[in-house]
Amino acid sequence: MTLTETSPLDFRSDTVTRPDDTMRRAMASAEVADNVIDIDPTIHALEERAASMLGMPAALWTPTGTMANLIALSVHLQRGDRFLAPKDAHVLTNELGSAAWLAGGMPYPLEHDAGPGRPKVETLAKAIGPRNGPYYTLRTTLLCLENTHNAAGGTIIPPHEHAQLLATARQAGLRVHLDGARLWHAAIALGLPPAALTVGVDTVSACLSKGLGAPVGSVVAGTVTFVEQARRMRQMLGGGVRQGGVLAAAGLVALDRIGDLAMDHEKARRLAAGLSELGWEVNTPETNIVLARVADVAVTLESLTAVGVLALPMGGKVRFITHRDLSIDDIDEALNRVKAGGHP
Fold first, then answer.
1. For burial by CB atoms within 10 Å, which of 263, 276, 284, 297 has the most?
2. CA distances from 77 to 97, 141, 145, 269 (A)
3. Dihedrals φ, ψ of 35, to 5°?
4. Which of 13, 8, 6, 4 is CA-nearest to residue 264?
């Protein structure tokens, strides 16, 4: 939809989208059952389809991406195990310490020395360290990757680098979880099926509410045995929903719309180019996230809000995210508003 000139243009996240009429009709007519006592048929259909798309034997629907990640870490880690993740990964900075508090893991960040959002193989190998250290040293047992990397600006792990990182982790005996909240974006940007980006991982999470328009929901996928364990962990965390097919129906519609993400990427490139012309220092977006380096983030956000452009801080920068509820015309209107008074 195109917003009016007086309405705020919301670039805070691609989770601010609202279900359209098609999605609402699917939700209203969904076949449902009690998914704790029995199996909700619509949730089951979504889980089967998501597992196939992600190249995994099985998948589990969860209310949120944070819960999906926490479930995976809780299954993979024993209390006191160390896990590795790229610096500023969502599991490190945006999940309220649940990886340590609830999953019992000791987090260790990896520098982005291979490019935004990803470490070099040598950096990973050094962080893993020797496999058989003294009994009193930390055990490193898990690598968490993020594709795309939110805080780095929606950046993609190229498939060949993914393979190299996986090989290094495997050689050291580590398990691998992939936070694929925006894996769909990476797949569309690369022109590859999502399963091509999960090769070799033990588990993967993916969101249905980021960019695809669903109001809620994620999946976590892995082996059949993993999903059996994950279902118990989901129940322990309070994620066992009853007639959840109402929500899963929205997820099925969302999965039909992965191709639409290419337009969100185009909108991000248009926004970045326009901001650059106005003198902003911005990244060249790989997907749908634009990061702007400014002198004062708080002042800039206040100035943007004053002209009806909503954004959020991210890693000392201003983050804009394009999505399906913003049209190309809305991008141009946002640039006009920024030109008129949005720059500090």
1. 297
2. 15, 7, 15, 39
3. -80, -5
4. 13
Answer whether 149's CB lies under 8 Å from 89's CB. Answer: yes
Residue among 54, 66, 62 nearest 184 (CA): 54
130 φ, ψ (degrees, to nearest 5): -70, 145
Q: Give which of 82, 79, 36, 80 is closest to 60, Cα–Cα.
A: 36
**82-137 confidence digits (pLDDT tens):** 999 999 999 999 999 999 999 999 999 999 999 999 999 999 999 998 877 788 88
Claim: this prediction has a pTM higher than 0.90:
yes
Q: Which two tokens stand for residue 186?
A: 């990476």
Where b means 16+ CB within 10 Å and e means fewer, 111-122 reads ebebebbbbbee
